[in-house]
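Researcher: Sequence recovery benchmark, item below. Answer with residues only.
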């Protein structure tokens, strides 16, 4: 099997006004101009910064992504952004099913699958997030929850080319707490089991990312875990230097 190329995703969440967003993006583009990190890089800024960052990243190795998209292409959905709008703004990727959307906006697996399908229909690659809560882990249900989320959140249109799955334990996001290598390995294996169940095979090229309190210090350890094909980074991606160190940590 050809090795899977690592994927590094920066999720800026609801952080960044125009000036600091441009400054951070420019610094990161400067880093990538100085050398190839050996992986794919996607930056997902707030929607307000997409058009501006498209110009900053033009001609660079950095791809642009949205943080969410609506299941519909257009219509009466106040406050939402659609797949075609993200493409129009220069995106090639979009995150769907992030736990902050699942918990904060009541999104379930079915809606996440519909959003991923809409992303695919628009020509975007979907980064589908799954992950158990602390209560689910403590109850010994982490792997069952992960498997169910993967099976339920993937639309029929998903292929390893247009989809990556991010395993992000809810209790590790923004907390500084991370699972141990054995738990990450087991969770990533379970993501693959979920994919195989959903599609009866064909998932060898699928990239499975780890997310949750990834830093420049711990990224190397995460990326060395078998089955970890990249990382989805929140807080640490707000520093161009830290995120660039993370992008190089697999070497
Ligand atoms: P964190 O967030 O790196 O700040 O924990 C990760 C994420 O939510 O994608």
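Model:
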């Amino acid at each position: 099997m050809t090795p899977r190329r690592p994927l590094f995703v920066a999720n800026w969440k609801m952080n960044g006004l125009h000036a600091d967003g441009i400054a951070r993006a420019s610094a990161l583009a400067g880093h990538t101009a100085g050398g190839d990190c050996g992986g794919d890089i996607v930056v997902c800024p707030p929607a307000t910064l997409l058009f501006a960052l498209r110009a900053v990243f033009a001609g660079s190795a950095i791809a642009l992504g949205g943080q969410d998209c609506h299941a519909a292409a257009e219509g009466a959905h106040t406050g939402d952004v659609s797949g075609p709008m993200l493409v129009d703004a220069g995106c090639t990727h979009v995150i769907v099913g992030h736990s902050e959307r699942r918990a904060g906006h009541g999104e379930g697996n079915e809606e996440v699958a519909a959003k991923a399908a809409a992303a695919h229909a628009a020509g975007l690659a979907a980064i589908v997030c799954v992950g158990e809560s602390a209560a689910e882990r403590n109850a010994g249900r982490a792997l069952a929850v992960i498997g169910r989320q993967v099976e339920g959140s993937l639309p029929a249109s998903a292929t390893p080319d247009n989809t990556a799955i991010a395993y992000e334990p809810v209790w590790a996001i923004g907390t500084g707490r991370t699972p141990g290598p054995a738990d990450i390995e087991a969770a990533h294996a379970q993501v693959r089991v979920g994919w195989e169940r959903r599609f009866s095979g064909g998932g060898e090229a699928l990239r499975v990312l780890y997310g949750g309190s990834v830093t420049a210090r711990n990224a190397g350890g995460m990326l060395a875990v078998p089955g970890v094909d990249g990382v989805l980074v929140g807080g640490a991606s707000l520093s161009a230097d830290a995120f660039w160190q993370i992008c190089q940590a697999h070497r």
